[in-house]
Specification:
CATH architecture: Alpha-Beta Barrel
Order of helices and strands: EEHEEEEHEE
Number of helices: 2
Shape: globular
Number of domains: 1
Length: 152
């Protein structure tokens, strides 16, 4: 696993976010959530410009959102999608280079590092930002930012 363990503090901007949400163990609900989201992307693209793919999640309770960032607040969304104006903020950023299959282990390690180093964590959504796209690069060239909410 190629995880950059020298995390840096970054600021995530306010983001228009369309998503599907599920509760439960991430290993089970994340793949299902992404299947539902990807099925809705074509209808969403007919109306809005998608700027990126990302998931938001919370641990307690376990809530997972698979979604896309948009250039503007949407009006009417395809059935099955929700919308939030995500406020963003300060995040501790780790970078995984490699397949999405490594994300559970990489995310676990990122949170472990945060705990070991006693880094301050605020209540809020954690983020997995999918920097590039499997349709355009091979699995080993995928880049995912794992972002843990912190204070600025």
């Amino acid at each position: 696993m190629s995880l950059n363990e020298e995390a840096e503090i970054v600021t995530w901007p306010e983001t228009h976010y369309a998503y599907v949400e599920a509760e439960g163990p991430f290993q089970q609900i994340a793949p299902q959530s992404w299947q539902r989201m990807h099925a809705l992307v074509p209808a969403l693209r007919e109306r809005y410009a998608i700027t990126g793919f990302m998931s938001l999640y919370k641990m307690n309770p376990m809530v997972y959102c698979a979604g896309v960032s948009l250039t503007e607040a949407p009006g009417e969304l395809p059935q099955g999608l929700q919308y939030m104006k995500f406020s963003g903020g300060a995040y501790i950023c780790f970078v995984l280079n490699g397949p999405y299959a490594q994300l559970p282990k990489a995310s676990g390690r990122a949170w472990q590092i945060v705990g070991e180093r006693k880094l301050p964590v605020r209540d809020g959504w954690a983020i997995e930002n999918y920097v590039n796209n499997l349709a355009l690069v091979s699995e080993e060239k995928l880049i995912t930012e794992i972002l843990v909410p912190t204070f600025s």
